[in-house]
Design brief:
- By secondary structure, the chain is an alpha+beta fold.
- The protein is built from eleven helices and nine strands.
- Helix content is 41%, strand content 22%.
- The mean pLDDT is 88.
- Strand 8 and strand 9 (296-299) form a beta hairpin.
- The structure holds fe (ii) ion (2 copies).
- One fe (ii) ion (FE2) is lined by residues 185, 209, 242-243.
Length: 311
């Protein structure tokens, strides 16, 4: 039995396969621990009209397993007025604990060999006013790492991918790879705003995170003797080129070995996460899902089965 407050992330009215049975309501519910699929099999049309996305509801129902996935069969729901809840309770956050990610951030920055760069970026990313925003920001509105602390999680992942490439290509500058991986998306702290859900700011739409981030770096580091001019230019180049192609919003294309490594590390982290997120959002009754950001159907049939239970 479930009686709990949830944020309604998405609602979709869908017809039963047997058209004569009318519609059912498919819901994606969230609290800060994550999202869960829910279904209302009865009175779907009425509840579809009653329910509003991005609002919090008291939900009464039952947890059931369908095709190896947990979902809630909802019997009743009622809206809560805004005064009755704390928005932060319903924001999805990274499943990785923040202290663990901040410790990893410190450890990876400690690997920077250049003493000035190491000190400057340890201070900026871990011990400044900016550090709190860097640890809180999401990495996207909905495509990948779209939750609180998604930016730091994604940035650490990009650094790991980039460093594993550097093991194969030791001529690549490790200091630059580490710092650029951690910095490439910092403009997202100003590109997104977290309310009930994540939204794009005016600055985000008008300027975009590549240029916002580039400006943040210049403002913070220009004239600081710990960051040599040539390193600042190289880091700026990687921030501006990390989307890889002009058509994807990069003002310049990657022109250095480190820039091309960071671009591909970024792409890998984002793309793999897009897949894992989509796999979690499958309706339990379906094995194929159209992922609109990827522009293709993806298949869920090989995951979710428990050992010995595979069909
Ligand atoms: Fe980016
Ligand atoms: Fe990124």
């Amino acid at each position: 039995m479930v009686e709990q407050d949830f944020l309604i992330v998405r609602k979709t009215l869908s017809p039963f396969k047997n058209a004569g049975k009318g519609n059912y309501l498919a819901l994606v519910l969230a609290d800060k621990t994550g999202q869960i699929q829910a279904r209302m099999w009865e009175n779907a049309d009425t509840f579809h009209e009653k329910a509003t996305e991005n609002k919090v509801y008291w939900i009464k129902g039952r947890v059931e397993k369908y095709n190896n996935f947990m979902q809630i069969k909802v019997d009743d729901l009622a809206p809560l007025d805004d005064a009755q809840f704390d928005a932060a309770t319903y924001l999805a956050a990274s499943t990785r604990p923040l202290p663990e990610m901040r410790a990893e951030l410190r450890a990876v920055l400690e690997k920077v060999g250049h003493p000035g760069l190491r000190e400057f970026f340890l201070e900026w990313l871990l011990d400044s006013d900016f550090a709190a925003s860097y640890s809180y920001a999401p990495a996207a509105k909905q495509i990948h790492h779209a939750y609180v602390a998604g930016l730091i999680e994604h940035s650490l992942e990009v650094a790991k991918f980039a460093l594993s490439v550097q093991e194969l290509y030791p001529e690549a500058d490790r200091d630059i790879l580490i710092i650029a991986s951690l910095l490439h998306d910092i403009g997202k702290v100003a590109e997104y705003v977290c309310g009930l859900g994540i939204d794009i700011t005016d600055q985000g739409r008008l300027i975009g995170h590549t240029v916002i981030g580039y400006n943040m770096l210049q403002q913070r580091a220009a004239g600081d003797a710990r960051v040599p001019d040539d390193k600042l230019t190289h880091l700026g180049h990687i921030m501006l080129s990390h989307h890889g192609e002009l058509m994807y919003g990069a003002p310049v294309m990657p022109a250095t070995l480190e820039a091309v490594i960071v671009h591909h590390a970024d792409l890998t982290s984002g793309r793999v996460r897009q897949f894992t997120r989509a796999l979690n959002e499958f309706a339990p009754e379906e094995n194929w899902l159209y992922e609109k950001n990827l522009g293709r159907m993806i298949y869920r049939g090989y995951v979710g089965a428990e050992p010995g239970e595979a069909e």
